[in-house]
Amino acid sequence: MSEGPILHLYKYGRKTELHTNSCKQGFGAILLQEAEDGKLHPVYYMSKKTNTAEEKYDSYELEVLAIINALKKFRVYLLGQHFKIVTDCSAFQKTMQKKELITRIARWALQLEEFDYETEHRAGSRMKHVDALSRYPVIMSSAFTSKLFNDYCDEENIQHLQIATGVPRGNGQVERIHRTLIPVLTKLSLDDSTKWYKYVDGLQRILNSTISRSTKWAPFELLVGIKMRNKEDILFKDLLLEEMAKELLEQREFLRNDAKRTSKPCSLKIERRITEEEKESFVIQRR
């Protein structure tokens, strides 16, 4: 992750591989694509901690669940093209070909059917790159503000942006998106507000495929170069457009009020000047 080959932008149609691994503590996955140099380069990293129920699964179920979670995460990149799943679970391919499966595995097998993939078994000793993602904890400490880390960023020409905790305006671009998403998620989860997270993926796809007023392009098209293959949810899109229209009206009202406020001193100066000119004219007429 810290040495070459480094992270590359995704390009549709290139040779693509999905490497996955799991353990009792979590899942790890890397989406890779072949670049012009003929080497596989990482496009996206994924790491997720297992919950209490998943920790009780056996190793095979955890490996399958790692693949399912990775496919959900990278769905917009993998749907509609052939790719290879690389795993250290030798039983995965044989099990998926069985006619009778336990309920949980059968349910996961159905989710795999919408993808065009082949599988490859690879020894665990050759899967250390994803094994690290499933086991290694994320460091959230002063290490990212140390002189050593700052020197590293300078050497690698990395722009490290830091924001103040508890100050939303310090991360304005992200908070600007949150301002749009939160009201929509609130409306979608009216029946049960604790289930708002179920709508995030669908809403994110709609947002990424919606044309921006400023760029005149959808964010997904700017990143990948093609239109997103997306089964639109009309409710999601209507709520999102409604919220965007509301924000546009609020922004227009704010600008108008600001224009009135800034122009008021100038108007007062003009009024005083006119009053003084009228007084001078009155004095001249009396003379």
Low-confidence stretches: none
Mean pLDDT: 78
Q: Give the ordered list of helices and strands.
A: EEEHHEHHEHHHHHH
Classify the beta-strand content into a percent band. Answer: 5-15%
Number of helices: 10
Whole-number radius of gyration?
28 Å
Give the strand line-up of the largest sheet. 3-2-1-4-5
Q: How helix-rich are the residues, as a percent range?
A: 40-55%
- Shape estimate: elongated
Quick one: biggest sheet? Answer: 5 strands, mixed
Number of strands: 5
Main structural class? alpha/beta
Distance between the termini: 90 Å
Protein name: Retrovirus-related Pol polyprotein from transposon 17.6
GO biological process, one term: DNA integration
Domain Integrase catalytic: 52-227
Organism: Trichonephila clavipes
What can you tell me about this protein's structure?
The chain is an alpha/beta fold. 48% of the residues lie in helices and 13% in strands. It contains ten helices and five strands. It has helices at 59-73, 75-78, 91-96, 103-112, 128-135, 147-155, 172-188, 200-209, 219-224, 234-286; strands at 16-22, 26-34, 40-49, 82-87, 116-121. The protein has a five-stranded mixed β-sheet with strand order 3-2-1-4-5. α1 runs parallel beside α4 and α7 crosses α10. The longest helix has 53 residues, at 234-286. The protein is elongated.
